[in-house]
Amino acid sequence: TPVVGVLALQGDVREHLAALTGAGVRAVSVRRPEELASVDGLVIPGGESTAISKLAVAFGLLGPLRERVRDGLPVYGSCAGMIMLADKILDPRSGQETVGGIDMIVRRNAFGRQNESFEAAVEVAGVPGGPVHGVFIRAPWVESIGAAAEPVAEYGGHTVAVRQKSLLATAFHPELTGDHRVHALFADMVRAAR
Length: 194
Ligand code: GLN
Prior knowledge:
alpha/beta, Rossmann fold, three-stranded mixed sheet, binds glutamine, Pyridoxal 5'-phosphate synthase subunit PdxT
C-alpha cells in the first residue's frame, strides 16, 4: 500500500487524511523534511497559500519540496495547494513562494466577491462516474496554461483542474464532500509512479 503524506502546516489536513484513507492508501501527516523523504506521494491541502508558503520556508521544507517534485514525486494540491503547485502566481503577496512544478499561472481569489464560495457540478477528465461536487472557497482559477500541462476540468469558462505528469491540482475541495474519486485518481497516479 502506498504511503501518501498530507503537508500539515496549515489548512484542511484532517479532511485530506480521511479522503486518502477512503481512497485506499496509507495517509500520514508531513511536517518535517525526514517525513517528506519517506512518502510515495503528497497532498498539499486547501487553506491559505500565503501561510503555507511562509511556514514551508520556516520549517525548512520549501527546498526539499521543490527537489522531490523535480524528482517526480506525485503531488495533489487542492485550492491553496493548487496555488503552491503553480510555476507562477499572477498576483502573489510579497514574498509568497510556490513549490511550482505545473506549467501554469494561477489567479488567487479569482471568482470575486459575489462568488467567494459556491458549489457546482464539475466534470473531471480521468474521474469516472459523472461530475464531482465542486466546493469552491475563495478559489483560484488557472489564468493561463503552458504546453506541458493539461486542463482536466473547466467551470464558467475557466480551467479549474490541471494535470501535468504526476502532478494534479484542483481549484475546488473534493476532501470536503465525502466523494473520494479525485483522491482515488491521485492514488492511482501514486501507484503508477512507484
Ligand atoms: N484564497 C486562498 C489562497 O489564496 C485559497 C482558499 C482555499 O484554499 N480554500 O490561498
